Amino acid sequence: MLLLVLAVFWGLLYAYRAHRRRKGPASFLPAPPSSLTSASPLLFASRSTRITLHNLHLSAQLSSFNDIHLSASARLRRSRWKVLVTSAYDAGSILGAVGMVGSLVLLVWASIQLALSLYDQLYAIPPPHTPALHKRDALPEVALPSNSHQAPLTLIIPGVTTPLSDLPVLLVSLLTTQIIHELGHAVAAALESVSLSSVGLGLTVLLPSAFVAFPSGEVDSLPPRPRLRIISAGAFHNLLFWLALVIFSWARIPSALWPMLGYSDVSLYGRVVVSVDESSPLYGHLPRGAVIYKVGDDTLNTGRRAAERWEALLTDRSSLGEHDPPLGWCAEEAWFAAHNASCCTPSHPAIPTQACFAPSSEPAFERCVDPLPFLDSASTPTHRCMTAIDCGHAQLCVRPRSDQELLALTLHVPSWLRGNGDGTGEDGAERTLVWQGDSTEILRDVSVGDWLPRSHMLPIGLPLLFSQLFTYLQTLTLSLYFFNLLPLPFLDGGQLLDALHSWWSAPSSIRSPTAESVPLSELEGGDGARTGRRPQVDPHAHVRKDLRGVVHVCAGALLGICVVLALANAYLDR
């Protein structure tokens, strides 16, 4: 569906461009051969706006913000805070250099870890298993060294590594972090009285982008320190934004905000059902807004947060259950024996309303019964047991066969959700839903949250949406900080490396803190010509230039290796 929408969207844009080109002013002069094969990328143009389309890239450039930037630059020059702000962006230059080195270190480390993780998945040898007889005494737990390596780098691929439903939030987060990044360049340029050519937004296939443009050569003509401030300001803003998000989370501001907006926190004892995938068998049976507080026989109100308990119980029930073996149910022996055993045979097709049960005392005495009366204890109370001794006369202690994937979800339906016409309100407040199948499918198909609205007027998914947006903003703004500082020619890191190289190659008088006030004639050698001084020539300049090229090539190779290894790991983890 997404591919169809994208195809229609881009098809309409290119159709409009072709229509606009045909409607252009006629010319009686012969057209050059190149114009017969190339279409103008222009879609729309006005005095302050220019929209172009080229190679599945839609770009909108605006010059209407130039006057605002010019006015801000004039105010900053006269402001008494200019020295402090300039010092802050000087610190950003230092952090940019540190981040550039850190990004290379992270790439090397990530490449090694991803390669080891891929090797483990491709060539992992299971530990040898030797059959042996053991006493039934409990064996001491022995911690075995693990050879697995957790992949440190996960590419954000909607539908593969992240849910496809997160795509709108992901794109909004990506655009927000880029706007903050470009705002840093614009503010730093205003400090140096560098005018703004245009600001703009772009769209490449599906990915949004933002950019600012300065007059050609104006930034490159600046002395090294101002140039460093402008180049590193974007990444500096991303880092500041990430720190602000960390402080926002550490101060637990959302925990104080949501109760004021009419939401109750259930994170200590349950999970709020926010949405259910329409293709899931649970759709239509698990009401949105219900609070799941029990999974099987295990409640979620333990010492840790219910979110961790919920995920752990559905991921590995065999190791986290409170009872081993699980508790059974007392059933009348005559009633149990009256059922058939057809569903217990491997060749028999599965019956949705039946499951194979067996007594604890006679595992071979299998029968097909409806699991709902046992698992739905709210509607049909039954006595729980470990063995037949716990039951009455002529009763058996039965439980599902070990291969029967049965799971009961006990949930509470809030009062505002009962009797609302969606089929959820005729029963009581407590409900039991029996799931038959792989429990990890529940994790994949059901979105749950921590906050329960007190009224049907409040959107159920708003807190979860905010949480997803907050998480993506944190992840993307820090990723953008390191990614943009990679020393590649098309990124800020490449320009930062060039600026550092220019600063290091310049004479010491130009690298001094007062270099910004050196007259242009002196920098061009005018005074030196009159005084007879010979210009200083750095004998190691060509070596540093070659080293800069090597850094560019190594960074590009490492980035390519990381992307390929991360894609391979994501493919094997599907």
Automatic annotation (TrEMBL):
Protein name: Endopeptidase S2P
Region (Disordered): 510-538
One of the record's GO molecular function terms: metalloendopeptidase activity
InterPro entries cross-referenced by the UniProt entry: MBTPS2, Peptidase_M50
Subcellular location as annotated: Endomembrane system
Source species of the chain: Lentinus brumalis
Domain Peptidase M50: 170-505
Record key words, sorted: Membrane, Signal, Transmembrane, Transmembrane helix
Sequence intervals crossing the membrane: 83-112, 155-175, 187-210, 230-251, 549-572
A single GO cellular-component term on record: endomembrane system
Segment forming the signal sequence: 1-15
Membrane-topology descriptor: Multi-pass membrane protein
Main location: membrane
BP GO terms, sorted: membrane protein intracellular domain proteolysis; regulation of response to endoplasmic reticulum stress
